[in-house]
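Weekly modeling sync, notes
Attendees: S.R. (lead), two postdocs, one rotation student

Agenda item 3: backlog of single-chain predictions. S.R. asked that every request posted to the team notebook include the full sequence so nobody has to chase files. The rotation student volunteered to paste the first one in as an example of the format we agreed on. Action items at the bottom.

Example entry:
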Amino acid sequence: MQQMDMRETRTTSRTRSSRGGAVGPLGRAGRAEVHRGRAIAAADPSERFVEAYRAARCAAGALLAPGPRRRGPVDVWHRLAAEVPELGEWATALGGYSALAAAVEDGLPRTISARMADDFLWAVGRFMDLVDQRLGVLGPAA
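Predicted structure, as returned to the notebook:
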């Protein structure tokens, strides 16, 4: 049985739609909304936190220039700070949760309180509002 390279799968799933076409900024923003909805619906604080983090990561990706990068930062938060300096503080703040999100996703024992998950989800919602404004997307109240 041939072994699949997970890095290739992750890259492909992040840059391609289910129909095989490239995913644009609005598609990534839509994917962020899906994760945010899952976070809101999650009863478990760890699941709420991880889904909120995924939403933030997708939203950040919606603002990044597509195509291959020659040099420079490769992680979404460093790229966001470099390509959209006005959101550098958000990139730093949200990027600070990367290790915790990875640990929780990997099933490592980490304590995420309901309050922390709720506060993080709230912050991610504010970040997503800023992303939507930059993309020219009207929010639910509009």
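Discussion: group reviewed the output briefly. Helices lie at 6-15, 25-41, 45-63, 76-83, 88-95, 98-105, 114-135.
Action items: rotation student to repeat for the remaining queue; S.R. to check formatting next week.
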